[in-house]
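Sequence, structure tokens passed on for absentees:
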Amino acid sequence: MKRFFYIFYSLLFIIVFSCSKKNILEEEIVVEPTLFSCVSYDTLLDPLTTKDDDLMQYWDIFVADVLCTKGAPDYGQQNTVVNIFFEYESDAAIAAGVTQSHIAYSSFDGYCNSAKVNVGVDWRSWTEMSLLKRLWVMYHEFGHDVYRYEHSPDPADIMYYSSTPGFIKINDFIEAKDRFIKRDFPGISYISCPSDFSDDISNEYEDYHICSLHPPDFLDEY
């Protein structure tokens, strides 16, 4: 009789353990469905199809995103001069261990001129970022240059101070970019530009909206 109970409980343990293990495995393979977006980011997020040195592909997807999300404006038509480029550290700076503290920037003659886009990106920082963070960074810079957005103190916003929060998923980006395009996120504010802005005025300024790798000290709580 004791042997019978021993065999019975052993079989029961195996069955319960197997079921529990199966449930754990099933939970581990559950994939969160991607939220709807009217444009696809698959090409930019696939290492086999994206081009590491092509920043214009981000501008093209941004223009298409705005058009299909809101219907207008067509920033591709509105911005007749689009200058999006990499900055490279000199061999001497690299040898000396001096590296850029910023990830990217936009300039006065870009964000205060609705006909121009002028965005610089640090190449070293770019190569160290994940593909999803690259997408986040470029939308962030277009937020400065095209929408004239100031920084946001909320890590959930694309316009967060440090360009990218610590860890992001594709759904985080989609939710943030929808608020970003619809101008609907808390604490939204805009860069001030002269009311009589012209190319002549832009030549008098060398102002840059620099986006660092880390948030400023007063935002350490984030």
In short: Residues 1-30 form one domain. The longest helix spans residues 2-28. The two ends are 64 Å apart (CA to CA). Residues 4-17, 215-222 have pLDDT under 50 and may be disordered.
